[in-house]
Write a structure and sequence with these properties.
alpha/beta; 7-stranded mixed β-sheet; two-stranded antiparallel sheet; 5 helices
Length: about 190
C-alpha cells in the first residue's frame, strides 16, 4: 500500500519526497526511467521526512530488526533502526560480507543475483522490516524475505521509498505487506 492510502493522503511531505527524486531517462539502458534518489539526500528536510514517515509507521510495532538491501537500503535503514531502537542488518550481494553467511539466489528481469546475510545476525522470533529504495518486480524483496525467514525471524513488512503500483498485489512477496511512499516519477515528452 502507498502511504497516501494509509492516512497520509494530501500530506505535503510525500509531494516533497517525490519532487526530490530525479528521473534520468534511458539509464542504465534505453527505455529505463532511472529514479535517482541522490537529490533526496541533498535535501535535508525531504530526507528527514522520508525517515520520519517510516519511523511513525514502525515505532510501535515491536520491530527488532531493520534489514536493508544493498546499497540504497543502507541509506534508509540505519536512521530508521536507530530511531525505533532496532538493530540494522545489511543484506549484501554475493561475496561482500566476510565470515560465515547464508545466501539466497533470485531471478532478475535481466539475469540472476544473490543476497547474503551474516549467520546469526537475525534470531528466531525477531520481527523484521526489510527496506529498500525502490520496488519494481519484487524479486529482490522476495529473496530478502526468504533469506530472513530461513533463520526463523518473521518479516512483518517490506518498505520502499518508491513503488510501482502493479506490485501492490504482493504476489512475489509471499503475501507480506508492502509499504511504499511514492510512485515513480515520469518525465513529460521524454525522447
Amino acid at each position: 500500500m502507498f502511504a497516501a492510502e494509509n492516512g497520509l493522503k494530501g500530506d505535503p511531505r510525500l509531494q516533497a519526497i517525490s519532487e526530490a527524486i530525479r528521473v534520468i531517462p534511458h539509464f542504465p539502458k534505453p527505455g529505463i526511467m532511472f529514479q535517482d534518489i541522490t537529490p533526496l539526500f541533498l535535501n535535508h528536510k525531504a530526507f528527514k521526512d522520508t525517515v520520519d514517515i517510516f519511523v511513525d509507521r514502525y515505532k510501535d510495532m515491536g520491530i527488532s530488526v531493520i534489514a536493508g538491501i544493498e546499497a540504497r537500503g543502507f541509506m534508509f535503514g540505519p536512521p530508521l533502526a536507530l530511531a525505533i531502537g532496532a538493530k540494522f542488518v545489511p543484506l549484501r550481494k554475493r561475496g561482500k560480507l566476510p565470515g560465515k553467511v547464508i545466501s539466497e539466489a533470485y531471478e532478475l528481469e535481466y539475469g540472476k543475483d544473490c543476497l547474503e546475510m551474516h549467520v546469526g545476525s537475525v534470531e528466531e522470533g525477531e520481527k523484521v522490516v526489510v527496506i529498500d529504495d525502490l520496488v519494481a518486480t519484487g524479486g529482490t524483496l522476495s529473496a530478502a524475505i526468504r533469506l530472513i525467514e530461513r533463520m526463523g525471524s518473521e518479516v512483518v513488512e517490506c518498505a520502499c521509498v518508491i513503488g510501482v503500483p502493479e506490485v501492490k498485489g504482493q504476489n512475489r512477496l509471499n503475501g507480506k505487506p508492502l509499504y511504499m511512499l511514492v510512485e515513480p516519477r515520469e518525465i513529460d515528452n521524454c525522447p
